[in-house]
């Protein structure tokens, strides 16, 4: 991983537009890694371990982009996830 795509470079750019090409590439890479991991795409000579490692790395990239966007917009991501996804756990 090099160039602008590296997370250290993203954090250093003031006012960076966070939902940009790196975020889009990360989403596409995660999809591809998932397809390879689930044997729905060519895997060539990759081992199951390397496929799983690639998937974990791509998932981490996407999560990092989500966290950067949330931070950029001063958003309480935990509260939003609870409101949107964990509503059944609420005592209301």
Number of strands: 0
**Secondary-structure element pattern, one letter each:** HHHH
Shape: elongated
Mean pLDDT comes to 80
Q: Which value, in Å, is the CA radius of gyration?
A: 16 Å
How many H/I helices?
Answer: 4
Classify the helix fraction into a percent range.
55-70%
Main sheet makeup = none
User: Any idea how many domains?
Assistant: 1
Task: Specify the structural class.
Answer: mainly alpha
Low-confidence blocks of residues: 1-5
Q: How much beta, percentage-wise?
A: under 5%
End-to-end Cα distance, whole Å, is 46 Å
Structure write-up:
The protein is an all-alpha fold. The chain has one domain (16-89). The protein contains 4 helices and no strands. The termini are far apart.
List keywords for this structure.
92 residues; mainly alpha; 4 helices; 62% helix; disordered N terminus
In a nutshell, what does this entry contain?
The protein has four helices and no strands. With 92 residues, the chain is mainly α.
Record the SSE blueprint.
Elements: H1 7-12, H2 21-37, H3 48-72, H4 77-85
């Amino acid at each position: 991983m090099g160039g602008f795509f590296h997370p250290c470079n993203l954090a250093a750019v003031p006012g960076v537009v966070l939902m940009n090409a790196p975020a889009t590439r990360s989403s596409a890479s995660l999809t591809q890694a998932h397809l390879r991991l689930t044997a729905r795409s060519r895997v060539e000579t990759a081992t199951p371990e390397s496929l799983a490692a690639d998937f974990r790395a791509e998932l981490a990239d996407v999560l990092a982009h989500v966290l950067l966007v949330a931070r950029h917009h001063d958003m309480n991501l935990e509260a939003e996830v609870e409101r949107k996804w964990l509503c059944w756990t609420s005592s209301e």
